[in-house]
Amino acid sequence: MHFIKVTLLAMIAFFLSVKLSLAHPGFHFGWGDHHRGISFGLSPQFYQFSCPQANDIVMSVLEKAIAKDMRIAASLLRLHFHDCFVQGCDASILLEDSARIVSEKNSGPNKNSVRGFEVIDKIKSKLEEACPQTVSCADILALAARGSTVLSGGPNWELPLGRRDSKTASLSDSNKNIPPPNATIENLVTFFKRQGLDEVDLVALSGAHTIGVARCVTFKQRLYNQKGNNQPDENLEKSFYFDLKTMCPKSGGDNFISPLDFGSPRMFDNTYFKLILRGKGLLNSDEVLLMGNVKETRELVKKYAQDESLFFEQFAMSMIKMGNLRPLTGFNGEVRKNCRRVN
Ligand code: HEM
């Protein structure tokens, strides 16, 4: 009798879970140590049935966008980071000002700085044609970040999917949670710890600065007044310092740009770490990974400078970790039709 009861219960649970998995791919129903109760997790197969061509669509839009503007790869990689550090990876960064929304686009770290929104719109409109209201804007950001890395010569990874989009944004969290370029190593570690990321993630993810550029205003202090004594940062290598001064004058020129990795600005490689070892990291936050007094980050910079595949492996793992920050899943959030507005 007991056996029949258990078998019956198991059958009901099985049918329920198949039904729910079809309605909500990525849904797990389980019992046992790892899946106690019901959980909606991210999974690489999330769109396997509902939109199998999602990644191909993202990649084809990216290829065209990067052919037109090489920098866009860097901008899209950064967009995912600035999304995930504010309320988790929920596409909150894409929302425009409206009656209910105060856009994150106007925060200190984002204003006149983050870019790539038109490419996200383009991807979204192609996805809406192919699979209406299925692929979230938060997943598009994650797919675009991975695709941009791959198309720049960097590592590939299996990307967990199934994030849903927020109905809110937080300008104040955007101001509070995104680390500033003049941060000390202690600050950087604290900003990352607050998100559940450690020193290894900090150094590996900073390696994203192997592509893209920064505006003069973000590193000017290092050239003219690093410690409030009108002197440059003593860790800057001399010829690099003189080059930077010609591109970034003491007054004005705030929006002039310099590559974060001038050795190979378009190539995703480990040159960024090699440059830091030679006093040629552009931002203070880059340089302190080596020169700050945290032994672990210092050693990691040296390791990644020596061993590109180690950097690639860790970058991929840390991107997955960052991409898993507080996602909305299951019945939370929504799949926006237009990434700039809630439905
Ligand atoms: C560790 C703390 C970090 C700080 C302080 C920082 C700061 C900055 C700053 C100030 C810029 C230049 C922005 C401008 O001038 O408008 C920049 C650019 C960039 N950041 Fe970071 N960043 C950090 C971590 C990251 C992470 C974790 C990623 C991605 C995983 C990332 C990806 C990028 C990329 C790709 C660019 C170039 C964007 C472009 O050319 O449009 N950064 N970052």
From TrEMBL:
It catalyses: 2 a phenolic donor + H2O2 = 2 a phenolic radical donor + 2 H2O. It is found in: Secreted. It holds the Pfam family peroxidase. Keywords: Calcium, Disulfide bond, Glycoprotein, Heme, Hydrogen peroxide, Iron, Metal-binding, Oxidoreductase, Peroxidase, Secreted, Signal. Residues 1-23 form the signal peptide. Its EC number is 1.11.1.7. One of its GO terms (molecular function) is lactoperoxidase activity. Its cofactor is heme b; Ca(2+). GO terms for cellular component: extracellular region; plant-type cell wall. Residues 41-343 form the Plant heme peroxidase family profile domain. The keyword Nucleotide-binding does not apply. Ca(2+) 2 binds at T210, D261, D269. Disulfide bonds join C51-C131, C84-C89, C137-C339, C216-C248. Gene3D superfamilies: 1.10.520.10, Peroxidase, domain 2. Substrate binds at P179. One of its GO terms (biological process) is anther wall tapetum development. PANTHER family: PEROXIDASE 72-RELATED (PTHR31388), PEROXIDASE 9 (PTHR31388:SF164). Belongs to the peroxidase family. Classical plant (class III) peroxidase subfamily. Removal of H(2)O(2), oxidation of toxic reductants, biosynthesis and degradation of lignin, suberization, auxin catabolism, response to environmental stresses such as wounding, pathogen attack and oxidative stress. These functions might be dependent on each isozyme/isoform in each plant tissue. This is Peroxidase.
